[in-house]
Amino acid sequence: APGQAEMYAGLQELGVANGEDLKETLTNCTEPLKAIEQFQTENGVLLPSLQYALPFLDLHGTPRLEFHQSVFDELREKLLERVSAIALEGKVEERYKKLEDLLEKSFSLVKMPSIQPVVMCVMKHLPKVPEKKLKLVMADKDLYKACAVEVKRQIWQDNQALFGDEVSPLLKQYILEKENILFSNEISFLQNFFSPSPKTRRQGEVVQKLTQMIGKNVKLYDMVLQFLRTLFLRTRNVHYCTLRAELLMSLHDLEISEICTVDPCHKFTWCLDACIREKFVDNKRARELQGFLDGVKKGQEQVLGDLSMILCDPFAINTLALSTIRHLQDLVGQDTLPRESPDLLLLLRMLSLGQGAWDMIDSQVFKEPKMEAELITRFLPLLMSFVVDDHTFTVDQKLPSEEKGPIPYPSTIPEAFTKFLQENRIACEIGLYYILHITKQRNKNAFLRLLPALVETFSDLAFSDIFLHLLTGNLTLLGDEFALEEFCTSLFDGFFLTACSRKENVHRHVLRLLLHLHHKVAPAKLESLQKALEPTKQSGEAVKDLYNQLTEKLELRKPSPAEVTETPSMELPLPTVPTPASR
């Protein structure tokens, strides 16, 4: 049987008798019992004292197989311990010479299940397994599967396609996990996509597996980075940039200097990681980051491609944008213009580098994007003027009202603001974060004033998953406003529904929001929204599923038919009684 052949694979090459030899002996002999006894003597454990002990075991009914198996297991454990010890003792050349000799002697038994762990252990401890042996392992699916990651690394480093096959499912899983968080049915302003700390994120399954697969192997690390760059270029998916930073910092946590010292982005990423943890770029770290950017030497500009990818990580963009909004508010209090703040200019420089990552890697032109002067001289002062409008309005409300009545909140948006959001990527990013900021402050007036500017934005950024995920979370703070017709019309008809039919992700986010807040929405509005959001034949499963969940929730809210029929009976016209006043 093929199973038997596997069990004894390689024994003949070593001159050790196996099952086939016994079969042959018994087939060609005249006295089978004598032949068996002779086979046992020749192939048993050659220890004189055992001759007397074995019959004693026979008396206790212990089968010989059980005895030999336990001796075998014991010896194998001892051998495995010895192999691990050899790998650590003596001079480097000597210890590896011993292991290579051992591998040479034992490799023919690699397919024998009982011996395989020993052979695998020897290979695991060899920093360089002979090429010929690696090829044999690679060619056999079962052997490849059984060998340790230390051996696989040696195979992978010269077989990019095979390594790609191993890494690819992990990268798919990673992207899927990120998307699941963005589309999660849990909506909250307290817990969102950016809540987990960098250290927590690095404990994720994919990052840990990739870290283990790479070990200390620079060649494999470079391959993974190449995969991430290629996929980022092909898909424009920014989550690959997050993984690029997480992987480097995971190796940093393990103090793998072999890789960290050769990655030119290491110190920059480490410093930025601390900012992401605090969700703010303080002055000290800002200087440090600026030092890295200014320190890019002539001839080494290619490092800008990697730095831009690190800065394109949504967690980095989030930190830079939040810091920018905070700086702008401080400047209002200090009566200072944006162009006079070096810290603010550095944040814009990094935002610009991050947002330009795709173009830089695609064009292979490694130089920092030019900052548009108007962004600093016109757009940011505009945002500051919105902050001033809010302050003025608040103060006005507190003043004793005179004949002229209360001053209304400014409702028009400067045309320049809308134009900037449509044409300038950095302005758009900062503008969107300002809108998230006022929503989080429950500033309904400012929100409704600026919302129309989101219908058309640069590259449809206002309809991107990350923005909508954050916006839906912050909108829960304005829950009570959903009862008002004007608020719902502005938000749904004026913004969300303008993109629902052409963008499936927007459809999903609106349904997520309604699943969470449907009980706050006025019934008539809810009914019209339910009609407007009905999935079409082209809608994906996710939209249909969310819509069905919403429909079920709304059904549960409707009063039951019994209640409906009983209600009128309680409202029978009361008998008219003449009122005393009519006398």
TrEMBL record:
One of its GO terms (biological process) is negative regulation of transcription elongation by RNA polymerase II. Residues 557-583 are annotated as: Disordered. GO terms for cellular component: NELF complex. It comes from the Eukaryota. Pfam families: COBRA1 (PF06209). InterPro entries: COBRA1. This is NELFB factor. It comes from Sapayoa aenigma.
